[in-house]
Amino acid sequence: MTEPASNQPPEWQQQPQPGVPPQYYYPHPAPTPTNGMAIASLVLGILWLYWLGSVLAVIFGHVALRQTAERGDGGRGLAIAGLVLGYVGLGVLVAVLVIVTVAVGFSA
Question: Domain residues for 78?
């Protein structure tokens, strides 16, 4: 008792039924540009350049934060990272100056 052969393809090869809506694909929105001051702040915070980079990293970081808020640019996280590195570099500068001042005061 075999079943009669049908002329229909297997179920997985059949076309979708008319009641199924088609799938639409929407394009992704264009990415926002990364703020150049934020990148500069991060790079200068990493390099520090004898603490001149730390000062510039703090300045550029604050400018970049303002610009990202006003313009909607990307790079807010880069600006914050540059600020953190810049302030850490300035903290190290202050600590070195205090240590040198105390060392010179004791040796005199």
Answer: 34-107
